[in-house]
Amino acid sequence: SGDRRWMRIVGKVKAGREGGFESIYAVMMDVTDQKQDEQRKNDFIAMVSHELKTPLTSMKGYIQVIQLKAKLGENSFAERALEGAGRQIERMTNMINGFLNLSRLESGKMVMEFRPIELSAVVKDIIEEYKTTHADNRVFSNCEPGLFINGDADKLDHVINNLISNAFKYSPSNSNIYIECFEQDGKAVFKIKDEGIGIPAENLPNLFERFYRVESTHTKTIAGFGIGLYLSAEIINRHNGTIWVESKVNEGSVFYFSIPLLKS
Ligand code: ADP
C-alpha cells in the first residue's frame, strides 16, 4: 500500500561445519500499532511539557522583577522568599526540559542546531543565572576563554544545568562545587567536581542508561527520574564528544565531557 510499517525482527545465524555463515532464520513481527501508540504517548508528553513551560517562563519573569524591587526596597524577607520561589521554578523548568528532550529523542525528533559557540560563555551565563537564585555561593568556576566548538547552545545548556543540579542534589549544603573548562588534546573539556555522596564503582558503568538511578539509603530520599545523564550522554554523543565520570563514595564525584575544538 506504500504505507510505512514497523517491523520487529528476531533471528539467529546458523554457522556451517567450518564455522562460516550457512543460513539465517528469523521471525518478523508487524509492531506498527505498538509503535504508533508509543509515538502518540511521546507526542503527548512533548505537548504537555511544552504547555507547562509557557506559564513557568512568565512566572520567572514576574518573580525576577519583584525580586529586584524587594532588593531596592531593602525588604530582605521578600528577597529571600522570592529567591526560593525562583529556585523552585528553575527546578521545575529543568525537569520539564528533561521530559521534552526525552520524548523528542525517543521519537527521533531531537533536532540539533549547530553553530560556533564559546564554551566559557555558555558556562558563564548558566552560573550567573544560578547566582540570582542561590544566595549561598557554593560554585567556584575557572573557565578558559576562547574554547570554540560547533555546538547546540540550548542542548549544552541542558547538559551543564543537569550536571550542576546533580552536584547540588547529591552533596551536602555546606560543601563546594568546582567548575573548570580547559583545552586538552584538541578538545574543549568541561569538568565539574563535587564533595558529595559519590557513586559506588559497581554503579558507574550503568550511570548513563535511561531511568538508571543508584539505589542506596542516601539516594532514596533524593527525588529524580534517572533521565538527566542519559540525555546528557546522547547530546554529547551528537557533538562527537565523550562524557565520563570519576567518583569515590563519601568523597565526591567528578563529571567531565569533551567536545572537539573548532579548527579555526
Ligand atoms: P536523577 O534525576 O536521578 O538525578 P540522573 O540521570 O541525572 O538522574 O542521574 C542518575 C543517577 O546518577 C542519580 O540517580 C544518582 O544516583 C547518580 N548521580 C548523578 N550525579 C551524581 C553526583 N554528582 N553525585 C552522586 N551521584 C550522582
Summarize the structure in short.
With 264 residues, this protein is of the alpha+beta class. It contains six helices and nine strands, in the order ββααβαββαββααββ. The protein starts with 6 loop residues before the first strand and ends with a strand.
What does this structure look like?
This protein has 264 residues and is an alpha+beta fold. The chain contains six helices and nine strands, in the order ββααβαββαββααββ. It has helices at residues 32-72, 76-106, 119-133, 153-169, 217-220, 228-238; strands spanning 7-15, 21-30, 115-118, 139-143, 148-151, 177-184, 187-194, 242-248, 252-260. The chain has a five-stranded mixed β-sheet. A two-stranded antiparallel sheet has the order 1-2. A hairpin with a 5-residue loop joins strand 1 and strand 2 (21-30). The chain is globular, with a radius of gyration of 22 Å. 24% of the residues are buried. Adenosine-5'-diphosphate is lined by residues 162, 166-167, 170, 194, 196-199, 207, 212-214, 219, 224-230, 253. Adenosine-5'-diphosphate (ADP) binds at residues 162, 166-167, 170, 194, 196-199, 207, 212-214, 219, 224-230, 253.
Percentage of β-strand residues: 15-25%
C-alpha Rg (nearest Å) = 22 Å
Uncertain ranges: none
The profile of the biggest β sheet is: 5 strands, mixed
Structural class: alpha+beta
Ligand kinds: adenosine-5'-diphosphate
Helix proportion range? 40-55%
